[in-house]
Amino acid sequence: MKRTNLKLLPSMKNQQGFTLIELMVGGLLGLLLIAAAATVYLSSTQTNRTSQGLLNAKSDVQLALSVLQDDIAKAGWANNNAASYTLSSPFPANITTLDGGTGSDSISLQYESCDNSDADNGCAADGSEAVDCTGASVAGGSLITNTYSVNGSKELVCNSQPIISNVENFQVLYGQVTSSGIEYVTAANITDRSRIHSVRFGLIVSSDINTSSSNTSRTIQLLDQTVASNDKKVRLKYESTVVVLNKPFTSNFGI
Question: How far apart are CA 111 and CA 130, in angstroms?
């Protein structure tokens, strides 16, 4: 039998597979690329989560500040008193009982419902100044009493009507005039309602979602209280001071 010698074509000589080392190196590089992409994704997700939490908290705080500042500024206003347009007191007699101790405080304030029985009143034509904080209509000249507090669900409420949620703490101090100037005291330490010149209040609002991957321990000084937390949420603190209409104060101190 005649033997035939097979010759490999050049293209067949160059067809060689990957070595085990080359496969391992390629796999390792692939894993590194996947890990880098995952890190970027997780970092981006965390940043977005934090930004969204801050945005939600800021929006809530701005709403609460606006409502409280406007309402406190009206405290003591009288509907039809050409002499001073102020009540005998911007605060109810139970003001000293509203100190929450180490928890959240409450604040009650009062003013008369606004109508146009006097040309100088300048009341809103839509009746928006003749309602309490729940939207209930109050006859012109009748007393409106609004009480702000934090309920068990961490909601800032006015007369039990929710305003915003995720309120960790609410503190109130009263600017009481003394011989040495204005001293801010808690409701329990008010000695004379007629000497209250202003109200200072503060809020701590937390994000409604977790914004970090692990718990963070922190403390925040809110007026006269130190508030501690240890979780994955971000918190914002805001404080504001509002001057009130206080007829005895303006009469006694010539302001």
Answer: 10
Find all residues with CB under 8 Å of 140, minimum gap 6, and list them. 79, 112, 113, 114, 115, 116, 117, 123, 130
Instruction: Specify whether the CB–CB gap between 71 and 109 falls below 8 A.
Output: yes
Per-residue tens of pLDDT for the chain, all 255 residues = 555 555 555 555 555 666 777 677 777 777 777 777 666 655 665 555 566 656 766 777 888 889 999 999 999 988 875 556 688 889 999 999 999 998 999 999 999 998 877 767 778 878 888 899 999 999 988 999 999 999 999 999 999 999 999 999 999 999 999 888 899 999 999 988 888 999 999 999 988 777 777 888 889 999 999 999 888 888 889 999 999 988 665 555 544
Provide the whole-model pTM: 0.76
Residue 49 is which amino acid? R
Q: Give the C-alpha distances (Å, rounded to integers) separating 26 from 38, 205, 217.
A: 18, 50, 43
